[in-house]
Amino acid sequence: MARYVFITGGVVSSLGKGLASAALGALLQARGFSVRLRKLDPYLNVDPGTMSPFEHGEVFVTDDGAETDLDLGHYERFTGVAARQTDSVSSGRIYSTVLEKERRGDYLGKTIQVIPHVTNEIKEFLSIGEDEVDFMLCEIGGTVGDIEGLPFFEAIRQFSQDRPRGQSIFMHLTLLPYIAASGELKTKPTQHSVKELRSIGIAPDILVCRSEGPIPQKERDKLALFCNVRPDSVIAAQDLRTIYDAPLAYHREGLDQAVLDAFQISPAPKPDLRIWEDVSDRINNAEGEVKVAIVGKYTQLEDAYKSIAEALTHGGMANRVRVKVEWVDAELFDTEDPAPHLEGFHAILVPGGFGERGTEGKIKAAEFARTRKVPYLGICLGMQMAVIEAARHCAGLETAGSEEFDHEAGKKRFEPVVYHLKEWVQGNAKVSRKVDDNKGGTMRLGAYDAVLTDGSRVADVYGTTAIDERHRHRYEVDIKYRDKLEKAGLRFSGMSPDGRLPEIVEWTDHPWFIGVQFHPELKSKPFEPHPLFRDFVRAAKDMSRLV
Ligand code: GLN
Questions:
Q1: What residue numbers bound the domain in which 58 lies?
Q2: Which of 99, 247, 495, 527 is placed for a possible disulfide with 26 were both Cys, Cβ 3.0 to 4.6 Å?
Q3: What is the pLDDT of residues 325-340, one digit of tens each?
C-alpha cells in the first residue's frame, strides 16, 4: 500500500505547490522509490477542458484522453510518469458522480450530504491504484480557508485516519513575506494558515516556506515552535533561476530527507541525482541564444502555452542554447504584412488553438516561414494553418479554409481542406461524433499511433517510423486534397495506421518546416527532450548562424 503525502497551500495562491510536489516526486524517485502524483481541484467545472486558457492556462492531455490541469504537466516533466485520467479530479467531477449515483438510486433513499457522501467519493478517488506505487503525492488546489476546498481537506483528514498510523503525512506550503522597511521576514501569515489547517483537524508534518532569500535560523525556530513542526522540517523554498533547479534545491534544503524521516524510513536510501545535475548544468550553462516567435492568440498569459514553452527550453538544453521565446499576437497581422513582426526570429512556432480569430495571421506566418525558409513548427491548429496556406498559395485552392470557421460563423465560405471529423477509429473501436455534441468531450483526445514515411524528415528526427502522440482536436486535414498538396511539395509524412488521417506534413524543399496534428510538447521532459523540439531548436540554431 502506498504512503501518501498530501500537499496543501496557504497564505496566497500561486506559490508553486505543483512544482514542489513534482520536485519531491523526482527526489523520491532518485532514492529508488516509485511515485504517482495527483491533483485535486476545488473548482466546479467537471474538467478544465471548457475553461478559457486565458483564465486557467493550458489544458494538459493525458495518454488515456483526459483533459486535465496544467500541474499534471509539471508532474510528468519532473518524474517521467505518464499521468492518467485518474490522476486529476475536480469538485465538479466529484459532485456530478455523486448526483448521478443519487439519480440511479444507489444511496437507497438516504439524504445525500457532503460528509460522508462527497468525502467518500473523494477518498475513493485517492485510493485508486494505491498498490501500484511506493508513494502517492496528492496536491490539493487552492488555499486553506477557501470554501470550495473544504470537502477535500475533510476527505484527506479522514483518509489519514482510516489508514494505519504513519501511512500519510501533510506538507503545507506557505509564503514568508519580506518587509524591506524593517528588514524582516514575517512568519505570522504562516502561523495563521497553519492554525486554519489545524482547526479543520490537519496538523502539518512539513512546512515548505517560499521566500525571496534564505530563512535565518531564528525564523525557522520560531516557525517550528509556533506551527508545531520539527525545526528540520521547515524547508526553505527560495526563488530559483529556473524551475529545473528545484529538485536539487529542495534536496539541499532537506525536503526528501524530512519526508523519509516523517515516515520513519531508515536508513534512507542514498539519492542518485545525476539526472538533475546534468539538467541543471545544461540549463545554467547554455552557450548562445536562439529567438523563437510563438504566433498565437492567448499571448497575454504565458501559462496558456506552458508545455510548449517548457518543450522549447528542453530543446535548447539538448542543443546547449538558451531559447528566447517571444509571444506574437497573430491578430496584429490578420490583414497586414507579417514581415515587420516576424523578421529577426530564428524560428516560428504556431501552436494549437480554437476558433477563427487570428487564423489569417497564422496563415500568413506559415507563408512567411515557407517563403523565407525560416524553420517552422506547426502544432495542431498550426499544422492546419500550414496546410491551408499550402492549399491557397501552392495548390490553386484559393478559398481553402477550415470547416471550424464556417461552423462558427454559421455560413459556408471556405473549401473545407480541414474538415470536421465525424467518425474515427480508436484501437479496434469506432467512435462517432456530431458537431453539435456538448462542447466538452467531443474531441479526438489522447494517444493515437501514427506511421511515418520512410526517408522523410520526421522519420529521421524521430529515428523510427512508428510513434504515438497525444491529440486534442475536432477537425482533420481531409486526405481528399493529399495528391494536390503533395504535387505542390507538401509531403504527408505521417498518417494514422489506417491511412485516413494526416498526422504530419512537411515541405520537402525547405530547411525545416513541419506541421503535426498532435501535441508533441506534452511528452517532452528536461531529461528527455522531445525529438521534434530538439531538432526544431537545432534548426533555429543553424538559422541563427546564417543571419
Ligand atoms: N481547433 C482545431 C481543431 O479542433 C485545432 C485544435 C488544437 O489546436 N488543439 O481541430
A1: 3-279
A2: 247
A3: 999 999 999 999 999 9
